[in-house]
Amino acid sequence: MALEHPLYHDFQRLVRRSAARARKGAGKLAEQLSELENKPWDESFRTWIADAKRQGLDPNDVGDQRWGDARIGAEAQYLPLMNADSVVLELGPGSGRYTRHFMPRCKEMVLVDYSKFVCAWMEEYFQGKGKFRVVYAHDYALQAVGDSSIDTVIANGVFEHIYLEGFYHYLVTFRRVMKPGARGCFNFNNILSEGGFQHFRDKLPQAMGKRSIFRFYHPQTVEKLCREAGLEVERMATSESRFAFLTFRKPA
Questions:
Q1: Continuous segment of H or E residues that includes residue 244
Q2: How many Å separate Cα 141 from the centre of its chain?
Q3: Do residues 143 and 122 touch, judged by C-beta distance below 8 A?
Q4: Residue 105 and residue 132: Cα distance in Å, rounded?
Q5: What are the helix (H) ranges across 5-80?
Q6: Are 246 and 189 in contact (CB under 8 A)?
Q7: pLDDT by residue (tens digit) across 210-242?
Q8: Residue 233 CA, distance from chain mean position
């Protein structure tokens, strides 16, 4: 029998330690990927669904109890932009609190979200309630949505979480998918309003290097982004609320 080299056992220990580190690293990576799959509001939606099931309620009734009646914003800002013949793209429908008020008032909805949980929930929740299709937004281009195919674009509670570059990319995409003369509306956190700056202060991380999941914009910045994306600004509605609403149009 050949004699083992004196370093043989040291080498074997090194291999075992390296393999253990690799397994640990792979597990940590899988955990990190799982966290990335879970988007910021997914857990809230899951809670609403579970609570609604126990109480025999619609999950979005539970959501309205937590976040306010969506009908108010829908009637005031978004529903006037659509009619029975409209194909409506909603970016970031979430649990469908606003969507459920839009769907009976339009021809078809294109529901776009970057949460896989939300996309699956939309397919189940709106089954049999109207004509719709769900698009998973893996990037800003939304290539699954055809050019000049959309009559109305809605995005409520979306741009308050999107950084400047992403904001602009989505506006460019809106121009591509909208029909000539089509209109849209979205809201954002207005840093100039009393409510906007208060929300900025409330959500300000104390630890150095940390960022809030909320984004805050100057209304003129948002108007500039729209115009540079090739969209016409119809109306900028501001108040002391943290939200400003911008209504826009694709040139005819």
A1: strand 243-249
A2: 14
A3: no
A4: 12
A5: 8-37, 42-55, 59-67, 70-73
A6: no
A7: 889 999 999 999 999 999 999 999 999 999 999
A8: 22
Q: Which of 87, 82, 86, 250 is nearest to 172 (CA)?
A: 250
- One DSSP character per residue, 101-168 reads HHGGGSSEEEEEES-HHHHHHHHHHTTTSS-EEEEE-SSSS-TTSPTT-EEEEEESS-GGGS-HHHHH
Q: Answer yes or no: are the C-beta atoms of 158 and 204 closer than 8 Å.
A: no
- Please state which of the four CATH numbers 3.40.630.30, 3.40.50.150, 3.30.470.20, 3.40.190.10 is assigned to the domain occupying 42-249: 3.40.50.150
**For the segment 82-116, what is each residue's pLDDT rounded down to a tens digit?**
999 999 999 999 999 999 999 999 999 999 999 99
Q: What residue has token string 């857990």?
A: 43
Q: Tally Cβ neighbours within 10 Å of residue 22.
A: 10
Q: How big is the chain by its Cα radius of gyration, in Å? A: 23
Asked if 167 contacts 226 with a C-beta cutoff of 8 angstroms, the reply is no
Can you tell me the distance from the alpha carbon of 82 to that of 114, in angstroms, rounded to the nearest whole number?
24
Distance between CA atoms of 49 and 60, rounded to whole angstroms?
Answer: 8
Q: How many CB atoms lie within 10 A of CB 204?
A: 11
* Cα–Cα distance, 118 to 94 (Å, whole number): 6
Given a contact cutoff of 8 angstroms between Cβ atoms, the answer to whether 42 and 208 are in contact is no
Answer yes or no: are the C-beta atoms of 244 and 236 closer than 8 Å: yes
